[in-house]
Design brief:
The structure holds 2 protein chains of 2 kinds. Chain A is an all-alpha fold. Chain A contains 12 helices and no strands. Chain B has 2 domains: 2-77 and 154-169 and 177-256, P-loop containing nucleotide triphosphate hydrolases (Rossmann fold, 3-Layer(aba) Sandwich); 86-152, no CATH class. The chains are: A mainly alpha, B alpha/beta.
């Protein structure tokens, strides 16, 4: 493809302009809302400034009620690029701690989800009994359960990554169970009858028909699951008094009124979640293309 | 080969029992080409599925290769071709034909040799590496037939395999199927609702009628076993077709009375 074509497609065919429009609208709205929210503080500290100066001040306060986008971006750039990665003030360091727990929880959750789905599809007793519990598990607020998991595991001497990963797993197994049960049951009666005419074993039915049929469903679940995993890991960092991780960073920001710190951790978390989902999307596209499944 | 004696089959549904087959008796000999014809609801597919042990008769006796249908199924004595080709979209033509061979545990060399052989038999050479979505409906159905032929079953059960195809493709596949039957000497049970198709293909035509599903006529074909499509214009062909039509009609009269 010619380069000019690429540029044309990028700007005028893809979703560049729609996205740009939305981001601009949100940005303008944000700066407008920041004015009344930060007005009180500006009034208190800088009484004798004129209106224009007050506006500029309210967008650049050190501890604003609502920090503005450029302050957040500044903080992120500072803490990502201008701090040593091993430093406790580096967002890369904190991001990595959270990412570790997220990935561990995601793999545990996916494994648990697939195992439960296999059980539900293959065992009538499990089919009738497990699903209500799975659904009930998700109606309990994770914020109520997280501290208990941390405390119980602490009492048996398990700290650090694993308790957070468990909380992450608790959130991420759910979409996988639901998606995989549907996926494993997606072959129609004719395909199952066909396997029966070849007198295939239930193992062969699983590996040659049910499992390949479930792959598109699995990926849809994984995308929801990995985002839920990240939420789980962050929530897991809140009650543990953890000193590292994006959750800890948000908590510290709350203690010291460092709103910019909270928002920059939030943005980093959002960026992390988006990257993870995009990565899974990428793996999905390659896999489905290889399997010649058109979705 | 296949022996059916006084078979009844009743489905229990939410609206009460439905009699799908009533007092059905039939003998299918080795190398026969038997067609089951009748309007929908006459139980022709149910009868085929009962032979394949996909349904259980409520009463009566059914044996396939002198075994119970279920042992025949477990011993892989028949190949079954469904109405839809049912190819796996993530497998190529070759991969789809390999599927039953994988399940039955054939050796690598034997798999290769058999795939080669049946692909030639159904004239799909050059399409081995194609995925199902790259094939026409007729080619998909041929691949599906190749898959049923790939292993050593001497019975082939076919449930309206060409039902979804247009007439031109259907004629072609019909004569190919006849050639294939002559070459392989398999016993074929073939469900259809096309009279010319049934007469053209069969050595024995079983006419069925609905509510309850039963056999109204069994016609031994007097046509020579080697035939081509032109035979459809012969007097004999027309005579047999007429008898089939009458059998279908009489089934309907019963219903009115």
């Amino acid at each position: 493809m010619k380069f000019s074509n690429f540029i044309y497609n990028f700007f005028f065919v893809g979703n560049f302009f729609p996205i740009l429009t939305i981001v601009t609208v949100i940005g303008i709205f944000w700066y407008l809302v920041a004015l009344p929210m930060n007005a009180e503080k500006v009034e208190r500290k800088f009484k004798d400034l004129n209106a224009t100066e007050k506006i500029i001040k309210s967008w650049n306060l050190e501890k604003p009620k609502l920090p503005t986008p450029h302050q957040i971006v500044n903080e992120i750039v500072n803490t990502v690029f201008y701090k040593k990665i091993s430093s406790k003030r580096s967002l890369v360091y904190h991001g990595w701690i959270t990412l570790e727990a997220t990935l561990a929880g995601f793999f545990l959750g996916t494994a648990l989800g697939i195992l439960l789905a296999l059980g539900i599809v293959h065992n009538r007793a499990m089919d009738l009994s497990v699903m209500p519990w799975v659904i009930a598990s998700q109606t309990v607020p994770i914020l109520a359960i997280a501290p208990m998991i941390i405390v119980v595991m602490n009492s048996v001497g398990i700290t650090g990554l694993l308790p957070k990963a468990i909380i992450s797993m608790y959130l991420s197994f759910f979409p996988v169970v639901v998606g995989m049960v549907k996926g494993l049951r997606s072959p129609d009666q004719m395909q199952i009858d066909q396997m029966k005419t070849w007198s295939a074993s239930s193992n062969q039915l699983l590996w040659k028909l049910r499992f390949p049929s479930s792959v598109p469903y699995l990926f849809a679940s994984l995308k929801v699951g990995i985002a839920a995993s990240l939420v789980g890991a962050i929530v897991g960092e809140l009650p543990s008094g953890a000193i590292a991780g994006l959750g800890a960073r948000m908590l510290a920001g709350t203690y010291y009124g460092q709103t910019i710190m909270i928002w920059s951790a939030l943005f980093t978390a959002a960026f992390l979640a988006a990257s993870l989902v995009i990565t899974i999307n990428f793996i999905q596209n390659i896999t489905l293309k290889k399997m010649a499944i058109i979705t | 080969m296949i022996s059916i004696k006084n078979v009844d089959l009743i489905f229990e549904t939410n609206d009460g029992p439905v009699q799908a087959l009533k007092d059905v008796s039939l003998e299918v000999g080795g190398g026969d080409f038997v067609s089951f014809i009748g309007p929908s609801g006459c139980g022709k597919t149910t009868l085929l599925r009962a032979i394949a042990a996909l349904e259980m008769p409520t009463k009566g006796h059914l044996s396939v290769n002198s075994k119970s249908p279920d042992s025949a199924r477990i011993d892989r004595e028949y190949g079954y071709v469904f109405q839809a080709a049912g190819l796996y979209p993530w497998r190529t033509v070759e991969g789809n034909i390999r599927l039953p061979l994988e399940i039955m545990g054939y050796s690598q060399a034997e798999k290769k040799e058999r795939i080669q052989k049946v692909i030639e038999l159904v004239e799909l050479k050059g399409f081995e590496k194609k995925f199902p979505w790259q094939l026409s409906g007729g080619m998909q159905q041929r691949a599906s037939i190749a898959r049923a032929l790939a292993f050593d079953a001497n019975i082939l059960l076919m449930d309206e395999p060409f039902g979804a195809l247009d007439e031109i493709v259907r004629d072609r596949l019909n004569s190919e199927l006849l050639d294939l039957w002559m070459q392989t000497k398999k016993t074929i049970c073939f469900v259809t609702h096309s009279i010319p198709e049934a007469v053209f293909l069969s050595t024995k035509i079983v006419v069925m009628s609905p509510r309850p599903g039963r056999i109204t006529d069994i016609i031994e074909s007097t046509l020579p076993s080697k035939r081509d499509l032109n035979i459809r214009d012969s007097q004999e062909f027309i005579k047999i077709a007429q008898r089939v039509r009458e059998g279908l009609k009489s089934g309907h009269q019963d219903e009115v009375l």
